[in-house]
Amino acid sequence: MAAISRAQLLRELLPGLNVLFGNSYKRYDNEYQAIYTESSSVRSFEEDVKLSGFMAAPVKQEGAATVFDTAQEVFTVRYIHETISMGFALTQEAVEDNLYDSLSTRYVTELAHSMHETKEIKAAAVLNNGFTTYLSGDGVSLYNTAHPQVSAPAIANRPTVAVDFSETAVENALTQISAWTDDRGKRINAQVRKLVVPYAGVWAASRVLKSELQTGTANNDINAVKNLMAIPDGYVVNHYLTDPDAWFLLTNVPNGFRYFNRVAMSTSSDGDFDTGNLRWKARERYSFGNSDYLSTWGSPGA
């Protein structure tokens, strides 16, 4: 077991120390909360099941029998909770030489920062990998041009040709979303609520969503995206998105991005009998994922 010793913190034992720095940086807020809906869990995993409804009702001819339809389970999404844990130890000699008070407070706080960083990375990974390795419950990537349906045309929740964020790209995305159906081909009222961009995309997002007139042109036309309040909740920046020109839309379709909190973060400490070292650790258990791909639309950028 590695432990922080006096040799690693020699300056803290000597006179003349003026300031310690490196552990007091400001941190980003919980950015995943702008994307995910949180639920608690008391099981080792959680499952969400998508159901298909009925087809559009047919015309019944005089004397003909009523058509009876069936429903079915379409796919299952399983959330398997991961345990995240990290700790540090302080040698018995360092404790005896009065490093206990300063180190315990400082590095317990640093443990919390480390745990927070991992959580944000795991939350963003669903979007970062949504065009490749993160799969929807239907077996294709979360953002795909051909999500299979039970008895309806395949659905796209990304452009056929990847595009950067722009007013025209937003209009085309909203037009595509307006044509979405359920698994039996019935239209659904999916409405875009929010835009998610990496920090590199904040400039274009601000111009497109807040300009009164069309951006980047000499036209005197209104900015239809702003005029129609096409993205009513505006945009949020996620600093953990890895592609600088990717962008994502969140819709009002429920049961999309989900975060299950199995065990909230806690810290604990104890002494090691063999070495006399003092040990601290932080631990939590959770899972992130997406149940319904209709909750989102995305482009990896051109």
Question: Would you mind describing this structure in some detail?
Answer:
With about 300 residues, the chain is α+β, with helices and mostly antiparallel strands. It is built from five helices and ten strands, in the order ββββαααβααβββββ. A hairpin with a 6-residue loop joins strand 8 and strand 9. The longest helix is centred in the middle third of the chain and has 29 residues. The protein is flat, with a radius of gyration of 26 Å. About 0% of the residues have low confidence.
Strand percent estimate: 25-35%
End-to-end separation: 48 Å
What overall form do the CA principal axes indicate? flat
The overall strand count is 10
Low-confidence stretches: 13-18
Rg over CA atoms, rounded to whole Å, is: 26 Å
Helix content: 10-25%
Structural class assignment: alpha+beta
Let me know the largest β-sheet: 4 strands, mixed
Strand order of the largest sheet: 1-8-9-4
Order of helix and strand elements from N to C terminus: EEEEHHHEHHEEEEE
How many helices in DSSP terms?
5
Mean pLDDT: 89
